[in-house]
Amino acid sequence: MVNEDEVSRKVDLLLRPPPVEECIYCTEPVREKPLTKTRLIVFGICGATFVGVYALTVPFLAPAFRKICLPFVPATNSQLQNVLKALNGRKGTLLDIGSGDGRIVISASKNGFKGFGVELNYLLVLYSRFSAWRNGVSKQAQFLKQDLWKTDMSKYENIVIFGVDTLMPGLEQKFDKEITDTCRILVCRFPLPNWHPVKVIGTGLDTVWIYMHPRNPEYESQKLRKPKLEDLNE
Ligand SMILES: C[S@@+](CC[C@H](N)C(=O)[O-])C[C@H]1O[C@@H](n2cnc3c(N)ncnc32)[C@H](O)[C@@H]1O
After folding, report:
1. Which residue's CA is the closest to the ligand 1 atom numbered 14?
2. CB of 118 closer than 6 A to ligand 1?
3. CATH superfamily of 77-232
4. pLDDT tens, residue by residue, 44-101
5. Residue of the nearest CA to atom 19 in ligand 1?
6. 119 alpha-carbon distance from chain centroid
7. Distance 201 CA to ligand 1 centre (A)
């Protein structure tokens, strides 16, 4: 005989939705916790923190993964003073290659130069623009997010570079092709490998070498001995 109660219990069991998951240690169903407002806020804060940390650190870490690693190391005060001394008697346009926080371009602009900075790190570009505005030279100092290798050097009368030794051979070739005869190049920390400087300002790590293109008629008479990196370790 059909037991109606039994049949209705079985039908009821069949129609009941299955538990979402079962605990692996017991047979208790594990129910999904609903997305409460608090959990949503916590997820939101975690996501925003991750995006913020990523956006702030990647521009500074990215140079380490390039073929030539040129990290952000700002010029020291004495290096900056040596650059300004090296610019004595010069005027016109000035380009800082890899302009960092803009300190060289801004100081030069305050001294009457039309300053330009090219920099890969967009956070540093934004900071430099802000700093130029705060120093009252936003019209005289321009900063671009741009790769130094894609920058046309022929437009500038003065060029400053604070680079690394591995950068200098390629940069010397670029200067050779692009700069004008009257341009002066101010090189901080790591000298050019083949050209002779025509003037040296300062000593040690803050030395600034001044170069002109070897095809400049004055080069032969003004050239000094080529610097050696060992000279800097004093
Ligand atoms: C040693 S720091 C010099 C900063 C600044 N010129 C100063 O003296 O204070 C070099 C700068 O070059 C930037 N840089 C690295 N590779 C670059 C590239 N390919 N094009 C433009 N800038 C670059 C770095 O982000 C860094 O800010």
Report:
1. 98
2. yes
3. Vaccinia Virus protein VP39 (3.40.50.150)
4. 877 777 777 777 777 777 666 677 889 999 999 999 999 999 999 999 999 999 999 9
5. 147
6. 6
7. 21
